[in-house]
Design goal:
Blueprint lengths: L1 H45 L5 E4 L2 E3 L7 E2 L1 E5 L2 E6 L1 H4 L8 E4 L4 E4 L1 E6 L5 H6 L1 E2 L6 H14 L6 E6 L16 H5 L7 E5 L4 E4 L1 H7 L15 E4 L5 E6 L7 H4 L6 H17 L2 E6 L4 H12 L6 E7 L6 H15 L4 E9 L33 H13 L3 E6 L2 H18 L7 E4 L5 H9 L3 E4 L10 H8 L1 H5 L4 H6 L4 E3 L11 H10 L22 H7 L2 H6 L16 E4 L16 E6 L2 E5 L2
Parallel strand pairs: 1-6, 2-7, 8-15, 9-10, 10-11, 15-16, 16-17, 17-18, 18-19, 19-20, 20-21
Antiparallel strand pairs: 1-4, 2-3, 4-5, 7-22, 11-12, 12-14, 13-14, 22-23, 23-24
């Protein structure tokens, strides 16, 4: 009997333990194999010497598999090693450039998910730059000076005036007057774009040449546009949104040459690198811009990774938009330049009273008691366009400021999904100043990307106008990024330069964390907006790197791992450990693109 029991116990133990021992042995053997393979990989890789090695640093990879490292090596524009100081020495040869970081921080290169190059550089080099000026008087003086220095000009153009300068005592804001420009220039047209790009200030000559008079009917203005008028109905001198299209014939007097565009683009490219930017979503997708960048690439002078969007206005037939994108990507697509995105404007801007909101504007908008703004497109036409683009695997980038425009954009995506099936479309809504909670959920469920501008997350130059137009409570509640991030929405950060005059990512990262001004003269002031919606430094870095790379379909960018492009930025300090108020003052030491140093700080 005891023998039977002992045999039963032995059988039981064998039954239970034998599989475990087999698994443990297999794991041990697998570990040995893995270690041997790792040694073989290091041994093989070490035969290939790097062209560039950065070591003794704090490397934030934005790669979950290996979040931090001490050293990184690249060759032929790709990362070939990331790991310890000890192991990187195997990649150092006689011709390897080695940089001792001495504790400095390395991040994937910053990427701007919505920017308009050459931005203000056209005005800086060839027109009137108002972006640094602070008063109406300075604007007028700048126009007068330009005319004096360019007596043979046929037209004067420029960019950068602020709507906020022109708020009236009753809270309304009709913008500046044509007569003030007439005083300094009356014989040739003057056309000045506001800093946000949604309004234009003109003199009387420009209005005359465009045929815009007291008798011009609102029905003659393109949908979503507005002519600001005096009490007697005469044009005041400001055109908003689609109404600026009425100036097309006059604008043609100012023609930027291809060579001038090239000069301006090279200037902004150099400036971007000084900010640590290595890649962008280019929203200025003109034929000239594509042609210039393509030529620069051929010459080896394009040192930014560029994805480009082409804008189509209401009335455009979907087949035309599809053909334009297909032709452009066949003609230009490369490792440096990619085109597969269409930009559509769902609405305008709050300060222009043209953003589309679910709830109405306040009386200060001067548009009555039930003004919600107006959609730029008819809903049926808009939905048809989005579905047609989605069907051809073309990404749509929606401009939507108000919560009504966000809802309209999401509705169109929802209809496209129903018509075409779910796909990896990575459709993107940009700005999203206001959004309803239910639509945050919808964004996450449909995997719609949010291209946000952290530069606007505090009480910035637009805040007072927003407060006047929609009320303090709604203005303070704008940009609910914490809620969006936690709900699963992918936030890809951007600047919207030049409507945003600043586009330095470190300034935006600080603002995203503090929800306060990043500028030394202001950052101790109470300019905080909606502090509960702040993100962490790590999340903000993620939003300016990996998330933008995801937005533009570049899985080889945005994180530092073997096989990815060698695009990174070196910062003087580890911004994840310092006081957030010091992030904006952190110097960029190096910007590296394709394994080559394109910027070296002082």
């Amino acid at each position: 009997m005891n023998s039977i029991i002992r045999n039963s116990k032995l059988t039981f133990l064998i039954t239970i333990l034998l599989p475990v021992l087999i698994v443990l042995n297999a794991c041990t053997n697998q570990t040995d194999v893995t270690e041997e393979k790792d040694k073989e990989i290091v041994s093989e890789a070490s035969k290939e010497k790097a062209t560039l090695v950065l070591k003794n640093g704090i490397i934030h990879t934005v790669d979950e598999a290996k979040p931090t490292a001490e050293a990184i090596a690249s060759k032929d524009g790709e990362i070939i090693f990331i790991g310890s100081i000890k192991d990187v020495e195997k990649y150092v040869g006689d011709d390897t450039q080695v940089i001792d970081l001495k504790g400095k921080m390395v991040s994937p290169g910053f990427m701007d998910g919505h920017i308009h190059p050459p931005g203000l550089w056209i005005s800086k080099l060839f027109a009137v730059d108002l972006s640094k000026l602070k008063s109406h008087k300075e604007y007028i003086q700048a126009v007068a000076k330009f005319r004096k220095n360019n007596p043979d000009a046929k037209i004067i153009t420029g960019t950068g005036w602020l709507n906020g300068q022109y708020e009236q005592p009753d809270g309304t804001n009709p913008g500046p007057k044509k007569e003030d420009l007439d005083v300094v220039v009356s014989d040739i047209p003057v056309i000045l774009n506001s800093i946000d790009g949604h309004s234009v200030w003109v003199n009387s000559k420009a209005l005359e040449m465009a045929g815009i008079t007291k008798d011009t009917k609102d029905s003659e203005v393109p949908k979503g546009g507005m002519i600001e008028r005096n009490p007697d109905g005469s044009p005041r001198g400001v055109l908003r949104e689609g109404a600026t299209d009425l100036l097309a014939g006059v604008r043609s007097l100012f023609e930027i040459s291809e060579e001038q565009y090239r000069e301006a683009f090279l200037a902004i490219q150099e400036e971007m690198h000084s900010f640590g930017i290595t890649g962008i979503m280019n929203m200025s997708g003109s034929e000239m811009s594509l042609k210039v960048m393509n030529q620069l690439e051929k010459e080896g002078k394009l040192t930014l990774r560029v994805a480009t969007a082409i804008t189509f206005d209401p009335g455009t037939q979907p087949d035309k938009a599809v053909k334009t994108i297909v032709d452009a990507r066949q003609k230009y697509n490369s490792d440096w330049l990619k085109i597969n995105t269409v930009k559509l404007f769902a609405d305008g801007v709050t300060e222009g009273k043209t953003a589309l909101f679910v709830d109405p504007y306040t009386k200060n908008a001067g548009m009555g008691h039930n003004h919600h703004g107006e959609a730029n497109w008819e809903a049926k036409e808009f939905n048809h366009m989005v579905s047609a683009l989605d069907k051809e695997d073309i990404q749509v980038h929606f401009h939507a400021i108000g919560d009504g425009a966000v809802k309209m954009s999401l509705n169109s995506i929802e209809k496209a999904i129903k018509a075409n099936g779910k796909r990896d479309s990575r459709h993107t809504i940009t700005h999203i100043s206001s959004i309803q909670d239910s639509d945050i959920t919808r964004m996450a469920e449909m995997e719609v990307i949010a291209s946000m501008q952290p530069f606007w997350f505090y009480k910035d130059q637009y805040y007072e106008l927003e407060k006047s137009m929609i009320g303090e409570k709604r203005a303070l509640a704008m940009y609910p990024t914490r809620k969006m991030w936690d709900s699963g929405v992918t936030i890809a950060s951007s600047s919207d330069y030049s409507p945003t005059p600043d586009y330095r990512p470190l300034n935006a990262i600080e603002t995203g964390v503090t929800r306060n001004s990043p500028y030394p003269k202001e950052q101790d002031s109470d300019l905080v907006r909606n502090s509960s919606q702040a993100l962490t430094v790590e999340e903000m870095v993620h939003s300016f790197t990996k998330n933008v790379a995801y937005q533009i379909f570049r899985n080889d960018l945005g994180s530092l791992k073997v096989g990815n492009k060698a695009d990174f930025v070196v910062l003087e300090k580890n911004i994840t450990k310092i006081d957030p108020k010091d992030i904006s003052e952190t110097p960029v030491v190096y910007t590296i693109v394709d394994g080559k140093i394109v910027y070296k700080g002082k």
